[in-house]
Amino acid sequence: MNLRARIYVENQKKNVQAKLEAYLASLKEKGLDSGAISRDATARKLKAMVRKAIFRLASIAAQEKLNQERVQAKAEKLVAEKAAREKPEEKVAAEKGKKGKKEKKEKKEKPAKAEKQAKGEGKKAKEEKKAEKQEDQ
User: Fold this and answer.
1) Which of 51, 56, 69, 98 is deepest in the core (most CB within 10 A)?
2) DSSP class of 2
3) DSSP secondary structure letter of residue 3
4) Greatest C-alpha distance within the chain
5) Which residues, 6+ apart, have CB-to-CB distance to 55 below 8 Å?
6) How many CB atoms lie within 10 A of CB 6?
């Protein structure tokens, strides 16, 4: 239901209620009993129009409530996102103050060529050992 139509529906309801009251009063003046009044087609039609207006107003109120809940949820979501964005920055700043930069785990590196040669494990050293073994045999 169009939320802007609330004013018009309220006005329609007031007008129809006024017409219904006037019509019921005129029927009572004529001397009709309550059974005859309840069977009167015009009275039933006016009552139906009042019920219809009440139903429309209820649906407009429900839609407004939904919109308010959506706006509130959206605002809470924005606040949560903002807090989430600020929290990592604070955390990083706190870590820098405590530890400085994070230390990376040192990987075990393979010995460099110079170290291998010093140990006698270079290619040339291995070839020389093989050659010596072959000469001995």
Assistant:
1) 56
2) -
3) G
4) 143
5) none
6) 16
In angstroms, how far is the first alpha carbon of the chain from the final one? Answer: 104
Could you give phi then psi for residue 57, rounded to 5 degrees? -65, -35
CB 27, CB 37: distance < 8 Å:
yes
Contact 24, 38 (CB under 8 A): no
pTM of the model: 0.56
Cα separations in angstroms, 112 against 107, 108, 115, 126, 131 = 14, 12, 5, 16, 24
Q: What is the pLDDT of residues 18-75, one digit of tens each?
A: 999 999 999 999 999 999 999 999 999 999 999 999 999 999 999 999 999 999 999 9
* Residue 124 neighbours by CB under 8 Å, 6+ apart: 117
> What is the tally of helices (H) and strands (E) in the chain?
5, 0
